[in-house]
Each structure stands twice: as C-alpha cells, then as structure tokens.
Amino acid sequence: MKELSKISVFTGILILISYFFLEVLELSFMHPAIYQILGFLWFLYTSIHFSYLLATKVPNIDTSMLPLVGLGLRFVVTLFTLLVWLMKHPDNAKLFVLNFMVVYLIYVVFEIIALLSNLRRNSSQDQNT
Predict the structure, then answer these.
(1) Closest to 92 measured CA to CA, from 33, 27, 43, 15
(2) CA distances from 121 to 23, 43, 83, 100 (A)
C-alpha cells in the first residue's frame, strides 16, 4: 500500500502542476485532456500493482520477472489506448500524443526510481545476511 500512496501523491502533484500551466498561466502546450491522461495512467498503474500483489501471493510462481512484465504490459496497454483515443478524437493529435508521452515517461521514471530503491534495499538485506 505504500507504493499506491506514493503514486497517488505523485499523480496529485502532477494534477496541480498541470492545472497551474493550463488554467493559471493558460499555456498552449498542454492538451485539455491532460487530466484524463493522468487519471488513466494512475488507474493503469494501480491496477497492474494490484495484479502484482495478487500474483506474489500465488505459490510456485517466480516473482522476479513480474516488475518487468508489468512495465511491458503497461506499455502495450498505453499504446493501444493512445491509438483508440486518436481514432476517436483526431483533433489536436500531435499535442495530445506529445502530452501523453511526456506524462507516460514521467511515470516510467518514477516507477524505475521506486524499483531501484526496492532493489537497493533488497540488495543491502542480502549482504547483511
């Protein structure tokens, strides 16, 4: 649950930043659907995290590859969703894709930083034993 609270706080910060850029400064490099993008990526992240937690409870399963599988699954679902959105809403497509990819990469960097901190913690525990 610690990871879910981190991603929720992180998403809240991104929402506040995007609100500041979109509503207060009225900058044109933010797509009006930025809140839907953030909500979608938060939902995707939390659903894959819950799936990961369920998979770790199953006996006889190798959990070492699950974070990588989650990252790959998130990428495929994101690309599919991006294609569907662009087919339904072709207006301002370049700005939407740019905003979507920037936010997606921000989430990936956040996930990698969180994953590396877990790996460092596990590595230090292995060295102490």
Answers:
(1) 33
(2) 40, 27, 38, 32
Question: Left if phi > 0, otherwise alpha if psi is -120 to 50, otherwise beta: which for 61?
Answer: beta
Q: What is the pLDDT of residues 15-66, one digit of tens each?
A: 888 888 877 777 777 788 888 888 998 998 888 888 888 888 878 777 777 7
Q: What is the pTM of this model?
A: 0.76
| Euclidean distance between CA atoms 38 and 51, whole angstroms | 20
**Cα separation, 108 vs 34, whole angstroms:** 17
Measured CA distances, 47 to 13, 28, 118 (Å) = 20, 32, 20
Q: 1 vs 4, 38, 113, CA distance in Å? A: 5, 20, 17
Shortest CA distance to 94 belongs to which of 28, 25, 35? 28
Handedness of CA 65, 67, 69, 72 (dihedral sign): negative
What stretch of H or E contains 102?
Answer: helix 93-128
